[in-house]
């Protein structure tokens, strides 16, 4: 599946983490259609994104973060992430509906 191979490649490029296709658990699909202004310019966005989760239990030293790909990383539990995105308490590019899809895949309540 091309989507999983893209996820595997990006995970390695951005965080230095090796994973296999079977490690990813599909949660759902997010579709975006946006026509509006972005950074002061007219912007047309059409996206279809697959949302997966991956169980990866490792020490922070296992990650090799590429600063050209990732600005910074924060470690937190899911509830703290949802709260932080909802109240915009940390820099992110996460949409609430992505977290809702993730919670559905994890079979946990979306608070």
TrEMBL record:
<dbReference type="Pfam" id="PF00293">
    <property type="entry name" value="NUDIX"/>
</dbReference>
<feature type="domain" description="Nudix hydrolase">
    <location>
        <begin position="7"/>
        <end position="81"/>
    </location>
</feature>
<protein>
    <submittedName>
        <fullName>NUDIX domain-containing protein</fullName>
    </submittedName>
</protein>
<dbReference type="InterPro" id="IPR000086">
    <property type="entry name" value="NUDIX_hydrolase_dom"/>
</dbReference>
<dbReference type="InterPro" id="IPR015797">
    <property type="entry name" value="NUDIX_hydrolase-like_dom_sf"/>
</dbReference>
């Amino acid at each position: 599946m091309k989507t999983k191979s893209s996820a595997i490649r990006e995970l390695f490029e951005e965080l230095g983490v090796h994973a296999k296709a079977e490690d990813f658990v599909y949660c759902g699909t997010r579709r975006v259609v946006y026509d509006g202004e972005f950074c002061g310019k007219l912007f047309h966005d059409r996206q279809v994104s697959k949302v997966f989760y991956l169980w990866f239990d490792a020490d922070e030293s296992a990650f090799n973060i590429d600063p050209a790909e990732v600005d910074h990383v924060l470690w937190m539990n899911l509830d703290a992430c949802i709260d932080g995105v909802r109240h915009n308490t940390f820099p992110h590019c996460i949409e609430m509906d992505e977290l809702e899809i993730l919670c559905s895949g994890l079979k946990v309540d979306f608070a």
